[in-house]
């Protein structure tokens, strides 16, 4: 505004913005009320617990508390990185994460593409319902089913093998089967549920694009390649970035239930190790340092993947 100092203009702009914000909040107050449960959830269960990472740099004593415990700097990180178990845990966690990324992540996309091609709505909805159900089954039940099916003594699979004259396979005792079993359980339990977001993205594709493509002579494969997949590209990139943030989260409950003394060398991961040393052995500071290391790695992977996605022309998550 001519004739007014820059500070006055800035102050007037801020005042106008504040009044507009208050007016919008008052007008849409009931919509903003819907945010309250989600905000409280993240504050109470995500941000407030971050204060606990301080004990990773202390010799934490429960009776002394955070304020009274002695600070030791990076002592627990040094202990962890020099522990012979570190590389074994790192290898096991990375391999399981790669198995899930390579074999599980693409399956919901492929399944969503196949369901999208189904034209009989009753059949489509029936299949969707059936493949969603395993998501709601707890890991305890899933692992119990695996034991019933694959147990060497009385397991259904081994009984079938024996009935046709083949040798029984000790699936649950052989270390070379462990990662395949873990990945197969994840695929069976979560593939159907993972299709939901991709089907939602496909529902937003304009049907006129397919109609125009058919008029131009495009077959089903060409429509899939030139219309459907580009429509899913942004969703795939965003979900991949978010998944990399949990790259080292192998799933505590599932792996803990499958672990025993024979397969521990290939099955022990960061999640189960934190439980063992933190809860069972009471090394709270050490286990917190391990968990913080996992979180930092996840943060680095998300930032790197997001930057790479933006360089490739995608939106990213921020």
UniProtKB/TrEMBL annotation:
Which controlled-vocabulary keywords does the entry list? Answer: Membrane, Transmembrane, Transmembrane helix, Transport
Where in or outside the cell? Cell membrane; Membrane
Among CDD domains, the record links this protein to: TM_PBP2
An annotated GO BP:
transmembrane transport
A single GO cellular-component term from the record reads: plasma membrane
Which residue numbers delimit the ABC transmembrane type-1 domain? 90-305
What residues form the membrane-spanning segments?
Answer: 30-57, 94-115, 127-150, 224-242, 284-305
Q: Which InterPro entries does the UniProt record give?
A: MetI-like (IPR000515), MetI-like_sf (IPR035906)
A Pfam match: BPD_transp_1
Provide the topology term for how it sits in the membrane. Answer: Multi-pass membrane protein
Question: Would you identify the family this protein belongs to, as annotated?
Answer: Belongs to the binding-protein-dependent transport system permease family.
Could you tell me what this protein is called? Sugar ABC transporter permease
Q: Which organism is it from?
A: Paenibacillus oceani
